[in-house]
Design brief:
Blueprint (H helix, E strand, L loop, with lengths): L3 E6 L6 H9 L4 E5 L8 H9 L9 E6 L3 H14 L7 E4 L4 H15 L6 E5 L4 H12 L3 E6 L2 H15 L4 E4 L3 H8 L4 E4 L10 H4 L7 E4 L16 E5 L2 E4 L1 H19 L6 E2 L1 H11 L1
Parallel strand pairs: 1-2, 1-3, 3-4, 4-12, 5-6, 5-8, 6-7, 8-9, 9-11
Antiparallel strand pairs: 10-11
Helix pairs in contact: 1-9, 4-5, 4-9, 4-10, 5-6, 9-10
Amino acid sequence: MKKLLYHFDTDAIPSVFDSVVAYDGGADHVTQLAGITPENCYSLVEGAIYTRAPKHKKNTALFVGGSDLAAGQELFAAVQKIFFQKFRVSVMLDSNGCNTTAAAGVALITNSTDVKGKTAVVLAGTGPVGQRAAAMLAMNGANVRLTSRKLDRSQQSCELMKQQFDVDLEPMVASDDDTIAAALDSAHIVFGAGKTGIQLLRADHWQNHPTLEVLADVNTAPPLGFEGIDMMDKNEDRFGKRIFGGIGVGALKLKLHRACIGRLFESNDLVLDAKEVYQTAESLL
């Protein structure tokens, strides 16, 4: 029986990236549907849960994607509300690569050092990847500072992660030399989750920093998020710090994304969100 993946994308045009990885992850056929919302998904989910016998339902799965994490989360929750008893299929959330990118970066960090009790700073932390990375670091016992250029946005993201994952994060501003220095004060770990082409740290911010141990930046387009690193860095020693660049993180992200797609077809009751995706990332290391 063919493995069918239905990609519910909240954007007007579905992601090509997610389609390619879905096939590479083991789906036999991927159906991409655009502009999916909690209001129009009901009949689509019904089609997925009613059409195959119980023992074959594991061969149908749903993937929620798109560039808007808030919209993705609403859709992800709405889909699950339609499930009942054994009438359900496995479903995964990865809007804008939020879970797989964050999980890959955090798993590489935790594999290189024990983060428990250490201070971790997530720069540009209000985006999809930053929010999830902050939550995952906190789940592993780190004291996490989530930064933004504006304090109110940082506070909102910290409150949202508290509601979703019951983690306590410290909101901070990182917009100029003084606020960046304050955010990095006595920190051990820095995770960069900025937009493409946005530099978050100059070389002098981190190269001679007395307490920093590990830096991970997910950016792959110049200028990189952290000046003085290489996008290919994967646990590279630079100035006494362990460095993970965008491709170094991205290689594991792709492997993880494919592995999670494969997991969707193992049973009909998997729900893959931040915690589950992170656990999968750990298993790959």
